[in-house]
Queue: 3 jobs
Job 1
Amino acid sequence: MNIHEYQAKDIFTEFGLPVPGGTAVQTVADAVARAEEYGLPVMVKSQVLTGGRGKAGGVKFCPTIEDVKENAAKILGMDIKGHTVNTVLVTPAVDIASEYYVGMLIDRNSKRVLLMASAEGGVEIEQVAKDTPELIFKETIDPRFGLLDHEAMSMGMRLCPDDIKKARQLAAAMQKLYQAFMASDASLAEINPFIFTPEGVGHAIDAKVNLDDNAMFRHPGYEALRDLEAEDPSERAAREANLSFVKLSGNVGCLVNGAGLAMATMDLVKYYGGQPANFLDIGGSSNPEKVVNALEIILSDKEVKAILFNIFGGITRCDDVANGIIAATRQMDINVPIVVRLIGTNEEEGRALLAATDLVPAETMDEAVKKAIELAG
Amino acid sequence: MAIFVDDSTKVVVQGITGRDGGFHTGEMLAYGTKVLAGVTPGRGGQMFQDKVPVYDTVKEAVSEHGVNTSVIFVPPFGAAGAIYEAADAGCKLIVCITEGVPTVDMVKVMPYLEERGVRLIGPNCPGLLAPGIAKLGILPTSIVKEGPVGLVSRSGTLTYEVVYQLSAAGLGQTTCLGIGGDPVIGTTFMDAIIAFNEDPKTEAFVMIGEIGGDAEEQAAEYIKAHVDKPVVSFIAGQTAPPGKRMGHAGAIVSGGTGTAAEKKVALEGAGIPVADRPMDIVPCLQEIWKK
């Protein structure tokens, strides 16, 4: 789950990272009230779950109340890469003398948390990684000991070789970031940039955190951080029904058991010149209720002109799945053709059940995909 | 022969009294796998299907039956705890089927396993099936066949699809292994490939990858340098949009890396054919095998 800058900063503040104060607001009047409270100048920053906010004009320096009014009005409601701005963060502006990048992520290769830091702060780190990878310093963190003092300090000194006070502040920030990362079950946590004022005081002025969906059960409070307005309504319905679903823009609705097979099915639709409407992993269950939920979500997309079931009955039995599909289609009023491909355990029984319906049977994945594309027109 | 299992594999199932654990233990027993004990805390003293004694701890199962392998079916919040327990009790192979384990838990578990020389398969995986030898996990036995092909995959049902096609074409398997779709997993593609390469019974193998990470790219480099056996591959997720998690926690294209196209280029650059469609995998393997 991706969260907003102001939410990430709340987590950072909880772990003692030096974050300038700030408040998230939804109206111009509230933005002005906060600016008056903090004192000028302030920054007005759009809160959307995408990068490139600054370039899009969604982050503004405001030296006067007039600027706050004007910019808040402009930014609220703005569209940034398809995301509508509903919230802005009003935060005291700080003078920037130097900028650094400090980030942590799960490194699949070392199977550890990887600390990355660079003196090239404030810009997109992916670009730095591509163009000048030698400017990013890395350290894998042993989870038994955490980020040790000497590791953090040597990283701080690589970033600020001539200023021990700044190196210490960076080292402390890295250790706190690691604590925040582990305690919040993050999959990514970035301070970009961490800045120093001309007086040498460090601040984390931007924050990005992605949280691990698998760990939500032990962070009941984090569910409230989810931006429901930023979520596609069908993806939200799928999440609430415990289905893995991603909306795409095509016309062939796909219901598949298993994530790998679901991806391979989408790929095959595209291979034959069709356009998949979605990714959907219905899981191992043949429960008709789950099939109904999945069909409702897919059919809420009016672009969908045909539906394709691709089910590999391993442990799940094909006759159970066939019964589930039949029960679901009886409960619903469905006006698009449905192609069903069942293979594996009890496939013959499953197909026999389907023969008595107007569902379109297919034997192979290839055949099923071609039929679905043809029926979608 | 197979990889990671043999005739000495003796199994304890953690979570044996749960719905999934119980069902799949029955399937493993039916395939002839030596499931000698089960563990569910608080259920010690019971018998599973009148055949398998249940204990409160893995330690008891090890001391009573000499089990060396654990298959884990406990819910996500207890999965890491179950892995620590199995490793502490002396199991050398742990297969964690559980889906939805927090990644930070897996990061913490790894050094504990490395220190004790324990191999973990998974989590979030279908496990391993060595036809004629043992089934550790949930792969369906009806589709496998004994033979010379190894198969390693990050996915579940897509693996079944490919195994089904291999068996239908008369190509049996030494071992079918699903390593799991999470970002941090125990046994990696690389581990499986090294094992298949060293296994004298495995004459050729298939690698089913998907978007996210760079495990396929690393495997490609290794195969190019060290493997003479025929290898073919398939990568799922060519049409996946960036930044979206495609079911598996690890299946995500982030920062423009981990795409199917990149993986295909790396594999083909290493001389490994990448099938365009799942149904092309078997013909592709047959073609390069002949040469």
Note: The two ends of chain A are 36 Å apart (CA to CA).
Job 2
Amino acid sequence: MMRVVLPYHLRTLAGVEGEVRLEVAAPANMRTVLDAIEARYPVLRGTIREHETGKRRAFLRFFACQEDWSLEPMDAELPEAVASGKEPLLILGAIAGG
Amino acid sequence: MSKVRVLVGTRKGAFILSADGQRKDWEVSGPFFAGWEIYHMKGSPVNPDRIYVSQNTSWSGQVIQRSDDGGKTWHAPGGGVQKSPEGFPVGESNRFVYDTSAETGKPLTTHQWYDGTQHPWEFKRVWHLEPSLTDAEAVYAGVEDAALFRSTDGAHSWQELPALRGHGTGPQWQPGAGGMCLHTILLDPADPERIYIAISAAGAFRTDDGGQSWKPINKGLHSQFIPDPNAEVGHCVHHIAMNPQRPGVLFMQKHWDVMRSDDAGDSWREVSGNLPTDFGFAIDVHSHEPETLYVVPIKSDSEHFPLDGKLAVYRSRTGGNEWEAMTNGLPQKDCYVNVLRDAMAVDTLDECGVYFGTTGGQVYGSADAGKSWAPLVHNLPAVLSVEVQTLP
């Protein structure tokens, strides 16, 4: 079971508290994780990656095992520790604005 | 007794202010969607309990929220009847995709950027939501980068009315300081095929066939920064107001200049008259007196606050040109807030109520058509929009 930490505003939008736990088909990568998140929380479609292009929204970043995963290809396999749920995948909002 | 509901969009959430017809004691509910920018919220004239909300952040983009019970509960339309595991309603109402198809749209993908080069058309946010006058499920959305969208299924899905961007001048449109936003949508109550819109900084446009074709309506506008005095587009229109009893008469707060049109926008003339400064954003018309207007003069395009730190609404009872300061109850010292373009509204009670919100978080109201003012609430986040519902 994968663990995903969403930024605060997306947690409130989706109505979740704490981490999201998801079954993600192997191999786990950002595309399959986001597919699973959006399938479970359709209201989040378009809020993490853009509708048409599928690109990560500019002010959001992905971190796995303390490494910045934001610029990795969407199909790059996530670390085993994240895929297994030992470590959470972090989706963070940029510290910007007021 | 009648009731009034004031819908307030702010930089950090939405609020609803409610009072009875006396309009003295206000109950504040909210924040709704705390932490998100609420550019606009507006109720359906057909079903006042149906309220549409534009919710946005730069981080996570656009969400449309909807209430069917006057703001007690909300949901994001779309996504069928699914519920999250926690029971929270889910949806997908944030999909605004420009129509560039050869069949219905135009392959228009760029507009003019600040530096004169062409720049990709990119969706950023919904500035204004205008519910249909006849169908609670139908609502228009004015967006940045400028385009007009419509939903006919209660905001479940959105389709662009592509003829506006495709009418010919689109590549010349350029953003104002606040972005290239379609911020004003006026539906003609006498003619369901006629819609007025305004874009910063392209100007005003009108359709007479329900959005199948559009024409610029900017004759008579003069802007210092445009070399061509007869320029068809490029004017920074800040807001347009109309009294529904006289839909062919329009009043405009331009970047500078307060303007008036008596022929549905075909021509405009300046009615700034004795205003101390004719820069501003907000403008509205008395709900029963079509020649009574309200503006909030702002010092200049470089200094977005009232003259001399004195907040004043100016009222004209002559359709412009002759203006009087309405300051009773408004701060007359050290006030340096702004009043944004969608942050003024009127109710329809017998004695017209006038309301406006400031970037300092105050919402002021007048229950006597501007003679006296009092704050409904003092310390909200910066106010982006104010709309009023007059309820039976």
Note: The two ends of chain A are 35 Å apart (CA to CA).
Job 3
Amino acid sequence: MNAAQIAFEDVVVRYPGSGRNAVDGVSFELHGGELVVLLGPSGCGKSTLLRTVNRLVPLDGGRVVLDGRDVAELDPVELRRSVGYVIQAIGLFAHMSVAQNVAVVPSLLGWTRSQIAQRVDELLALVGLEPPAYRNRRPSQLSGGEAQRVGVARAIAARPRALLMDEPFGAVDVLARTALQRELVRIVRELETTTLFVTHDVDEAFRLADRIVVMRDGRVEQVATPLDLFDRPATPYVRDLVHAGDDVYRSYFVHARELLRTANT
Amino acid sequence: MSISRARALTLIAAAPTLARCTFDRSHVRVGSKNFTESFLIAEIYAQALENAGVPVERLFNLGSTQIAMAAMQRGNIDCYPEYTGTALIDVLHLPPIADSHTAYDVVARLFAQRYGIVWLHPSPMNDSQALATTREIAATLHLATLSDVATAAPHLRLATIQEFLARPDGLPGLQARYGGFRFREIRTYDIALKYRALLENKADVASAFTTDGAIESDRLVILRDDRHLWSAYNVAPLARKAALQARPAIARVLNAVSPAITDEAARSMNAAVENSAADPADVAAAFLKALGGRTNQS
Amino acid sequence: MTYLAAHPARVAALAAAHIELVAVALAAALLVAVPLGLWAARRRNVAPWLLGALGAIYTIPSLALLAVLVEWFGLGYTPIFVALVLYAQFMLARNVVAGINGVDRAQVDAARGLGMSPPQILLRVEFPQALPVLIGGVRIAAIAMISIATLGGYVGGVGLGVLIFNGLTLHQPQMIIAGSLAACALAITVDAALRLAEANTRIS
């Protein structure tokens, strides 16, 4: 299996200057190929936790273990090239074409031109953008949805074993968002990439996740499958969270999804 | 353009600066002060050296005697034209010496002793201070010498420049040496307009320098300094000892040129630049060309 | 106009020396200002102080600064060269800081997360996007330097300033006009060329 295993062991990250901890002793594991969603309100520490995996955030306590190795012992630049990273603001390089954006990590890794060209076309097709039409476009010529597709392509270009996504569809309009969510699930299943996905949107979490980690104030409230979270919330906070809003539809969705899953296995 | 190419271009562009640091050593640096005559003579020196195959860097327009001397002593320039009178009075702070030979001997000895600066051969040209008047006035009022002026002073209007009134060897020195007279009227003018006042009958006498271009005209005459107030002001090339040792050609070339600069030559060159707006480089070139012709014949 | 018409070769030679002086000084100034600007751009607290100090240098009257430099370096090419490099710092460093800090933070974050090392982020992301602003700074600096370089004529330097100051000493206005016109022509040409460069590096 090509997918990574990620483990958080008592991870602590302090806010600079403040007494409070951004991440306050978090421990859980991701199994290979899983799509795990970190769910919680803003300020709960989910983005911070995500960014400890590729060392964009340094730890103040505990460890993060990637495929059995403490990430603190790895070279940060090489680590980041082996872990995909997608952000809400997308951050496509405005002075490069779509193809050049996607080619960034392979080119950093020294792939040959023809290898890169082939991979770029592969990826554009994978994320639903026709290569001949999109290869030479500039980021300014893309819609929000198209741009984030390129962002995803760029993140997985060098076949990373893990993918980190920080509210990647937050800046995309609602209609495009649903399409992207569906496609993402398809892509990570196909590529068997372990994915850690951050969001504050409960429905998005339910739609995407194999398991959900609910966080509040830097701590884990519950780790469970969507169905278990819905039917057996561990705390009043979790119960209020997952039953807020249109929970009839959500109930429908979660049970239907579970039915489909059990039918396929 | 890629970043590495930009860096390379920057280095290439910086190379001339580095080259220049070495470039400076090989050229003879000729200076001049900031008035026409100094310019012209320095240009003559510079072109004479260049004609002899010596590379020259020109640092003209240095503000004053003090600046030029400081530049010489610091080694910023290798040579420049200086006047014996100026050296005597403004640099050595000695009283004026009217006799050309004596003045030259004194400054040459003391400059060599005190500053390590050598006076090469002087020119006959004597750019001393003077009073000038028109031929008509000289004839009408019987003015031939400064003593005559002193006697007639109560009836005379003087046109002059501010510096003449301030210099100790200007009006104050003149009045002291010639018996304490007073002019009927004194007016100061811009140095370029002073002679106009004389010619337009707004003044009777004007302060002057003996090699001023305007005096070349037939209408003006110089009044004789019969009591020898004013110092000799012969021009000569000054050179740093070290520069002469490094390049003996400097002495040879400049000594050949210097004796040819006479009062008449100086006046006509000054006139060409000031009245006819000729380029000093052209005027100097013409002078040297004529000189070359003459030495070929002798 | 008459001096210009009578001595085109001399004016052209002086103009060439003038632009060479400015170009070399500009290159040297960039070698100092770019690292300085990068250093300040990374430190938000330091940047205002540094730019303030460089701005203070810029307000020193050029003639006064030149006089001090002549004391240290003597006459000729060096003092005017150093003066130009010093004056250019403010405009160049300011634009380096503005250019680098103006780059979209999201792109820098993405670059880091994708695994670019800090030098790679600088060269591949920040610099290309800061380039139009930087070239704008170069343009402004070059125009100012063409003007300030005329003071070289006062201290035995090279360039069109020699023509202007000689014209003053010799009471020949034609020389002054010729020198000034040539300097203007240089400035206008350089401005146009760099505007073109600036436009070409802009990201669509």
Note: The mean pLDDT of chain B is 86.
